[in-house]
TrEMBL record:
Keywords: Pyridoxal phosphate, Transferase
InterPro entries: Aminotrans_V_dom, Aminotrans_V_PyrdxlP_BS, Cys_dSase_SufS, Cysteine_dSase, PyrdxlP-dep_Trfase, PyrdxlP-dep_Trfase_major, PyrdxlP-dep_Trfase_small
Top-rank taxon: Bacteria
Organism: Saccharibacillus alkalitolerans
Catalytic reaction list: (sulfur carrier)-H + L-cysteine = (sulfur carrier)-SH + L-alanine
PROSITE patterns reported in the protein's UniProt record: AA_TRANSFER_CLASS_5
Enzyme class: transferase
The name this protein goes by in its record: Cysteine desulfurase
PANTHER family according to UniProt: CYSTEINE DESULFURASE, CYSTEINE DESULFURASE 1, CHLOROPLASTIC
Cofactor: pyridoxal 5'-phosphate
Amino acid sequence: MNASVREQFPILDQEVNGHPLVYLDSAATSQKPRAVLDAVRRYYEWDNSNVHRGVHTLGSRATDAYEGAREKVAKFIGAKHSEEIIFTRGTTTALNLVADSYGNANLKEGDEIVITPIEHHSNLIPWQQLAKRTGAALKYIEPNPDGTIDVEAAGKAITDSTKIVAIAYVSNVMGVIHPVKEIAALAHKHGAIIVVDGAQSTPHMKVDVQDLDCDFYALSGHKMCGPTGVGALYGKKALLEKMEPTEFGGEMIDEVGLYESTWKDLPYRFEGGTPIIAGAVGLGAAIDFLSELGMDNIAEHEHRLAMYAMRRINEIDGLKVFGPQERKVGIVTFNLDDVHPHDVATVLDSYGVAIRAGHHCCQPLMRWLNVSSTARASFYLYNNEQDIDRLIDALIQTKEYFGDAT
């Protein structure tokens, strides 16, 4: 990525605490390019109307933009049909929809749900609750010592009693890329479905849901240069057609009587009420932006930054990095000896460097790592080696500051 890409993100052109901003928290939320900001503003200024209802010009333009965004999402992740894409508020809502609709209808006592202990809470708690509702057992794939998940370990956890396997394509803490395609084949061999949390994979690498052969795939727009409050659920058409909606009201109905109602065809039965129109328009613009840059180019850029960051971080004594150094996206998670991650993040912020500190919505993983929290620097297409150098310089200053204090 060159300087012209960075220049398309106006928020980066500012100072924080007297220093040029270095934003290294894209795993939490990415920044937005002008193309996305302009698309959302243009919709509200010129096309603002409800969709699928009015026959007037604004309504038609809004509907075309909304459905056009659905087609862009489908193409971007390799879905076979646009009706396999359901707009949601994000990954969390999408995963809960699967647990509440598919899970409630298909699981019973004695069945198994297989996940990993390194999942984001959004891909753990819905399955905990489903297990409680249905009497199904919750089982965990044992990670390797470096935090990776392999097919052999998955094979020990998945049995003929397994009905759902749920796993993140990429860990939001360690950036590890999991062998989802191979685990999907294993799940299907045992008659189970696989649900993939794509929050951290979709922004950073090329995704093909047909090649993965996953049954459901969830993503969030705000992590891939799109607006907050919008995301999507992909589901295989044959599965979605058998599922019942979990929200009821306007727009998702076919016929309504006093005592009975019927639902629209896919995908509208799952999109009750006024949908996230502006968000979808912005997500469509983000997909255009990412597609023009090329996902393979983005992945290569991030991998180079991650490797550079690992080399520089390893120069600092007393700093521990969690997770493997290879097969990962642009995330580096670490702790500085005897300094709480929140203190590290606070000092870094005083130098204009924004990172994340805490348990990252992964408390079971923190316990598995035997820590309460960690610091996390995450890189995206607008970052460069100079940002990494600023991070390293600030970490050295942080270490010296707390060393002097001690």
